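INPUT
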Amino acid sequence: MALDRDPTAGSEAQAPLVAVEDLVVRFPIRTGGKRQFITPVDHVNFTIGAGEVLSLVGESGSGKSTIAKALVRTVEPNHGTITVGGLDITHIGGRQLMDYRRNAQMIFQDPFGSLNPVHTVEHHLAFPVRKYRRAGRAQIDYEVGALLERVGLTPISEMRVKYPHELSGGQRQRVAIARALAANPALVVADEPISMLDVSIRAGVLSLMNELKRDLGLSYLYITHDLASARYFGDRIMVLYGGKVMETADSRELLRRPTHPYTRLLLAATPGNRHRGPLPEVSNGAPDLVEGRRGCPFAPRCPAATAICSAEEAPTVEVSPGHSVVCHHTET
Amino acid sequence: MAQVQPVLELTGVSVAYETPKGPVQAVNRVNLTVMPNEIVGLVGESGSGKSTMAYAIMRLLRGNAGVTEGAIRVLGEDIYGMDPKTLKKFRWNKMAMVFQSAMSALNPVLTVEMQIIDTLRVHKPEMSRAEAQRRAGDLLDLVRIERKRLRSYPHELSGGMRQRVVVAIAVALEPDLVIMDEPTTALDVVVQRSILDEIQAIQAQKQFSILFISHDFSLVSELASRVAIMYAGRIVEIARGDSLSLGRRHHPYTEGLLRAIPELTADDVVIEGIPGHPPDLVNLPSGCAFHPRCSAVMDICRTVRPEPIVAGETLMECHLFTKQEVSESGS
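OUTPUT
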């Protein structure tokens, strides 16, 4: 991948498609009548190049879905900036936001919930074509056919008239992908798009997303809890924990040289790994997301943690070009 | 080898659902044995019949579902020949089950302690309350949850803790067989791994058999000594867990599943899905149900259903294999 756009790498040849700087999203919660804030996304920075796939890996509560929501702006950030294609979209609204969303489409985890059970496949695809391409009836007909062909839902004439309940999980997810493509986006945010599909079907959907990247130059933010598919589909992987970035690297590099203690834990726990013996963690609590927490969110579970870890923010250390680790105890 | 009585023995078991579209054969003449202390994996995609099989073993099928043929024996006793009273005692004392969704397996209005004590006292009426209370604490120790959690309600626990409580309740009466139906599917990978480690440790300590149902191939092959692979209601292969890698000869469906998982650390990852989609059980393909998706399909596959070839503890149901080949790859 020619487009390695890690801001820490220093080369500014061409601006990345997506640049997220110092992103903070906080939500109010109520604990015992007291109003508090949690920060599911806490000062996160990343970029996605044109035609690049960034995999976001983390457990539930790591903030990965909130980042996705901020990126398609169904959530408004509290701090920081999100720039997509040169446009600052952090606080846009109205017409501008609608125009932006056409460029940034989302694919959801649950293909049963994301399609309307009372509408046919054709209806699901014709709507965005009409809305975004301002096409006439014949044109819409043609475009819908082309989209179905593009995502491998053939024979087209049969598929058009089907309702979601007549489709398998994999086919539904293909409809969701076709619907995203209908808007001609530059960026696709895919939130766990294969985790609810059968194993034999997953590979096909991933391959389709890969083809679309190659043929249409799409960029993806690929959200997953599974390191194996993050590695397979992603050019780079960013590991999140408790709303903070722990480690970012080229996919192969990350699996070959996992450096952050949390990445190592995640890797050790992933099925298919040769790791045997106890997991490298000292406790198994969930991260503290309450605003005002100090230090590294992983510190309570980290086998390498020392006093400084729960007192001070960890520095970002670049262990090799494009491979950065946010940890007090990184050896360079 | 001396004759050891299997803990679980299914012979020619079929389960059918009555539906408006006609009867659906969800499990089709399945043979499977689980030996004492053995962990057997059962892998299949959604709709392959794996959960239906689990419910059939527990005699929990309800409404429109029923066992239509075959026999299910646990510790040599026919589950379907029992009167309800005996069955009630047999369940949980001899065989227990861990369900996928811990939230719905636990009663939201009872504390953890009350649920464990309930289970103990219903199935062992002679146990005193004090004794049950003591046991409840021991059980939490076993699954590594602090004892103060006895007073917690399910909603106060994390997903991982809830599933640990469910495991604790399943092993509470030291059963000989525990059926686990996707026990860690809804959990994060790190939590999943630590629970699996605990299940293995408890199994080694308490010595019971597990039928572990999952759709996750790599997870099951690490855990189980043998893995049964189900497709469209049939067990198409039973292989040794450690043989489940590419490069060994397997059923085309098993090989397809192996190819569909990206390998974690290999340098060049190529994955390939299985073409087509899982079959409609109302309208099963003729011959071998997998033939429309099979890359090695032959003429015979379209018309004749292959018979299972049993070789020792392994099984193969595919026209590509001869009896000799199966016993060679199985030994």
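end of record. Chain B has eleven helices and twelve strands.
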